[in-house]
Amino acid sequence: MLKSFIDSVFAYGWAYGTGEALRGKKYRVIMTTGGNSKSYSGEFTINDLAKPFITSAKYCSMEPLPFHVIHSDSPSEGRVEKYLSLFK
Asked: Which residues contact 58 (CB under 8 A, 6 or more apart)?
């Protein structure tokens, strides 16, 4: 499903190349995990996992907003409210 989305949105002739519809658009990478940050500190970090998204956006000349990672296996309601406030 994610690959289909990427293939559709980052299409030649629309997102880059002759179209450039995404040039100058702002983007934000927000990742959620099913565990704590220690799970993503080994051989492959969370930043490594985000690189394909960031690289695709750079290729389309998009402008980055701050990157966010939400680490939790069971978010409480208070925690969800905190995360939502980050993106307003």
From this structure: 64
Choose among 28, 72, 34, 73: nearest CA to 50: 28
Helix (H) or strand (E) holding 69, with range, is: strand 68-71
Taking the domains of the chain in order of start, what are their residue ranges?
2-86
Architecture per CATH, 2-86: 3-Layer(aba) Sandwich (3.40)
CA distance 39 to 45: 9
Model confidence over 30-58: pLDDT tens digits? 888 888 888 887 788 888 989 999 999 99
Judged against a pLDDT cut of 90, whether residue 21 lies above it is answered with yes
Q: Is the pLDDT of residue 75 over 70?
A: no
Closest CA to 32 of 80, 78, 64: 80
